[in-house]
Design a protein that fits this description.
alpha/beta, 2 domains, elongated
């Protein structure tokens, strides 16, 4: 597995992955492929109705989701995932044997980030999965850095300045009263 840094490679291999497919062969294929590539945190289900609860409990970094399943479709699963937290990016790679453009567009509009045609070439599947996980991990790190930045600002600056910065002000210059002046320079 190639990656931009050893630290990122370890984070990618520890990422939480969920495989959702009603075909046991497909689940076994992806589990074996991912374990052979060094991924360590893989779960699977053949029950699309379980995905919402599983994701709520585990906060998966990537979901490999079959689009055509009995009961509820992958498209409905995408809707349910989005309703959990509309502001959160849940990376989903749709698994499909379907080459229909309308199905792909519908999945993309509902939040899917990529596609794999079943059965996928192993190298392509691993590359797409790794790329998606790298983006997810970097996004999570970026979010954590933004939270750290906000905390630091709150500790260093008065709250009214932090509020103005958060509101989008880029230049904050207030007039100095004579008593606030330090002196001539």
């Amino acid at each position: 597995m190639k990656s931009s840094s050893p630290e990122l490679t370890d984070l990618v291999r520890d990422a939480k992955i969920l495989i959702v497919d009603d075909e046991p062969f497909s689940i076994v294929f992806f589990e074996r492929l991912l374990r052979a590539a060094g991924y360590r945190n893989i779960q699977s289900t053949s029950h699309p109705t379980a995905v919402e609860g599983l994701h709520r409990d585990n906060q998966f970094d990537l979901i490999l989701l079959d689009i055509h399943m009995p009961g509820i479709s992958g498209l409905e699963v995408l809707d349910r995932l989005k309703s959990l937290d509309p502001s959160t990016h849940v990376p989903v790679i749709v698994l499909t044997g379907d080459q229909d453009a309308a199905t792909k567009i519908a999945a993309l509009e509902k939040g899917a980030r990529d596609f794999l045609t079943k059965p996928p070439p192993k190298a392509e599947a691993l590359s797409r999965i790794r790329n998606m996980l790298e983006v997810r991990i970097l996004d999570k790190q970026n979010k954590q850095e933004r939270e750290n930045y906000q905390h630091l600002l709150g500790n260093v600056l008065p709250s009214y300045i932090v509020n103005r910065l958060n509101a989008g002000e880029t230049e904050i210059v207030d007039e100095c009263t004579p008593s606030a002046q330090v002196g001539p320079f």
